[in-house]
Each structure stands twice: as structure tokens, then as C-alpha cells.
Amino acid sequence: METISTLIQMTPIAPFKKNPMHIINSKPNNRSRKSELLDELIQIARSPTEDDKSQVEWKNFEKKLNEYFDDQHLYSCGSSAHKRRRKFFEQPDTNLFCPIHHAVLNNNLFILKKLVDGYGCDINISTLDYDTVLMLAARAGSIWESSPKGTKPEMIEYLLQKISTGNEKAINEQDDEYRTAVKTLLKATVLHFACFSAKDDEECLGMLEILYKKPKGFDNVLVRQGDSEFIRQKDSDNLTAICIAARRSFEQSVGYLLDSYQCSQLDNCCDIELEYGVRSNNEKILEKIYLKHKNCCSQEKNTYKYLLHLAAKFNNNRKVFVGADDSKINDEFDKVSHIINTKYCKDAWDHISAEGYTAVHFAAYYGNNAFIQYIINKVKNWKEHICLPTQNSRKMNILHICVEQSGSILSPPENEKEKSTTIDRNRKYLEICDTILEFKPERDPDYVKELLEAVDNDKNTPLHLAARMKSEDIFDCLLECGGNLNCSNLKDKKEDYIYGVTVPRNWLEQTPLFECAKYSRKSFMEKLLLPREANSSKWKQILDRLKDENQNTCLHIACN
Question: Which SUPFAM superfamilies match (predicted)?
């Protein structure tokens, strides 16, 4: 039979009219036979599993496939022919899904077995999102719905036979590129997806019991050590399956995974799992994770000392108190913070983070009013913790932090959604200011005065910072409270004492009124000046005498 060079395929089709060979680009739309065969295979993989039609379609497809490879590679045989067919089956479609991925997603076990067992397709080949077939199976509802509750689906049973922690041979078996099953599960395991996709704790636990079972000889240290590596694997977000289960408050699932778990200093899972134990807002989950890790490397890093900082940062948006006279008040406070404070680390309030922040400063920074309410109502020396400045160069107190964070948005909102987000953000910090400045008979107002008169490293009081920001509500709150308490950071009070106008002063001898002029806060200036227009001649004298260190008046600052 006359053979023709592959270079001729680039010429017009006319020379091949009399040749019985198949033409690669013979279609008007320039679709190759190879592409058409791949489309046909994917269509078969998407069809219902284990039906006669699927098997007939596979036989017809396999016949076409053999004809195609016989035409393309006349003298190919044996291992080389098998290798070419396997590479064909492992090529992705336009969505970067391979035929085995489509077979798993559509619960087509017949096609999956043909591809894996018949042609040796790589069971660990992943999608663009690094999903393997086992990960896809964990999320495919059609697979789990196809079998009675509590029984293992045939698809899952087959995949676990190929990839399983109890099957050492399947794990260590390498393909032609020297890849093993464990090495290719780089971004997430099936346990991650089970914890992520389950509707509730009960369903998640059922999936975990099917997907993961303790291997024989688990009491042996070496066996337990090797098996724990699978549970400790992290996804692309650096989270273990325990972290995801804790984040969703799946108490039973967390306990099930921890029972088959052994800590290791190599992968540093202790810190991240303790963090998500705190973030779960569930004291029982935190208790399980803490007991597992309390004697491991996390204590060498003093992670347990900063659990209260994590609670201040993440455990927000909770109702801490139903009401002042509610009989259930003891059941409503922050239980996670309480158990950390009273059981795990009794001196947690005194620990300083790398940023120079205590747990109270963290709560103020992240707008956690619930945490502030907890410390005021449940901690004995709460005034000391509330009034303590940050242990860094800025020396800000809790009010400084709230005011600064309320105006930390760099650009103005562009639409209604961003505008509402900005309002919600400001409201968080306003609530903290209201909580701290609230007057009650059992409280000493001196601590409020101390907070309002406190200065940072630039001698700015909280009202100075509020005059720069755009939160008018916070400015009103501080101005009213400071005026009622006659606050001033000057040792010798002047006759023309006016809070916000003549006092307090920063290192440039500027008052909040200067800050309003500098940052064009017209509405803020009106609140400071308009109520005092009754005696305009005296008022004019006060403003003329009001000068900063450089002898500039407010008018000079406004004109600059």
C-alpha cells in the first residue's frame, strides 16, 4: 500500500481523493477525527451507567478508535500502541476535564473501569482546579444518592480500592512519570470535600466513616503515624479537613478525625487547627482540639497564649447579652473567650502580640463589640485592660483604634452596596465607643475621662483622630461625652476652656478644630462653632487668640 508523507497533509485535499486513507481535516469546519472521537467518548461517559446502550456505544467507539490509530500508525503494535491510546484517553476537553472526570461526575462506573483498568489511565490525573476523581466523587450528589443510606456506593468503593490509605500498594504505585497517589493530592483530599460539601454534621460524619476507616494495626505507632499524614494534609488555603469541619461547627466530625490523629512537628498543623477551634464559636470543638494539641509543638511557640487574641479577632457577630435583667444572662456571654480566659490561659489578657496589641486591642481593631462587652461584664480588672495603650511606637488606646479603623477605607464608595458596607463598618466601631462611654451607676466615670484625655505618640486624643475621619456619629459621641466630663489634656485649664475648640491639644498645639479645618470637615466645624454664636464678639476673640505652635490660626490652616 502506498504511503504518503505527513507533510502532504498540509496541502489541499484534492491529491487524496483517490486515496482510501482517512483524512484528518476532511470536514468543512476543520474538526479532526481525533477531536470528534474525544467528543464521542465524553458523550458516552456522560450517559447513564451500567445500561446496555452505554456498552453498545462503547463497542462502536472502540472500533472507530482502533481504525483511527491503525490509519495513523500503521506499524505500531504492542506497548507503543497501548501507550498512544492511553494518552488519547488522558487528554482534556475545552474545560480541562478528562474522560475519567466526566465518568465519575455522571456515576458511569462502566466507562471508568474501561479507561482505568483497560487502558491504564492515571487515576490521579487532576482538573484545572487540582481536583482528582476521588475529590469529584466526594462532591457528586448523584453518586451518594444512587445507594441506600449508610452503604458505600460502588463508585466510591472502586475508587477507594485504587486510592486508599489502607492500601499501601495503591499509594506507592507510580505511573510512567514517577507520580504516586499521595503526591498528586497536593491541594486537597477527599476528606476536605466531604467536610465542605456535607449539609450537616450527621451527613459529614456518615461520609467520613465511608471514606476513611482506621487501618488494621492502628495501635502500632508507625501505622498511626503514617495514617495521620493523610488527615493532616492541607489544601491550597493551608487548611486541614479538621479546620473545615471546625469552621462549620461539625462537632462529631471533628471528634472522629481527631480520634485517628497524631500530632507532628513537621507539617505545623497544630496552630491552624487551634485557630479554627477558636473560630468555630463552639467550646466543645475547641476543647477537643486543645486537648489533642496541648502537649505538642504549639506550646513551644506559645500559641495557646494567644487563643484569646484569635477569639477577639474572629468570634464576632454574636449576641452576648439578651438584656441587663435577663435570667439567661450567664448563658449568653462569650463562652469560647470565657473558657480560654478561665481554663486554658488565665493570664491571656496580659499577653502582647507581635504588633504590640493585647486581646482588647484586637477586639477594637476588628470591631468586636461582643468581646468588649464580655470583658467589661465578666473580667475583674477590666478597667486596666481597657485603658492600657498599645505596646508599640503609636501608643494608642482602644478609642484611638476604633476611631482610626472607622475611617480606614481609602477610596469613597462607588455604589450603593459599597456605601452600605461602609455604614455597617462605621456602626461596628460606634457600638464599641457607646459600650465604653456608657454611664452606669456601678461604673467609675474616671476611666472614661482617662480614655478621652489619653494621647498617642503624636499627642493626639481620640477626638483629634475623629476630626480627621468621616464618621460623624463617632465624632458626636466623643464630643458630647468629653464636654460633659470637662476633659482636657492641659495641666492648667484656661478661662476660655471649650472642649473640641481650645482643648485638647496635640504636639503642634493644635486642637480638634484645627483638624476639622485641615481635612475640610465642614459639618464637624458647625457642631463646634454654631452653638456658641450668641456672644459673637467674645467668640471672635477666642478664635483670634487660638494659635498653634507655628502661630497659625484655624483660618490659616483652612486656607492652606
Answer: Ankyrin repeat
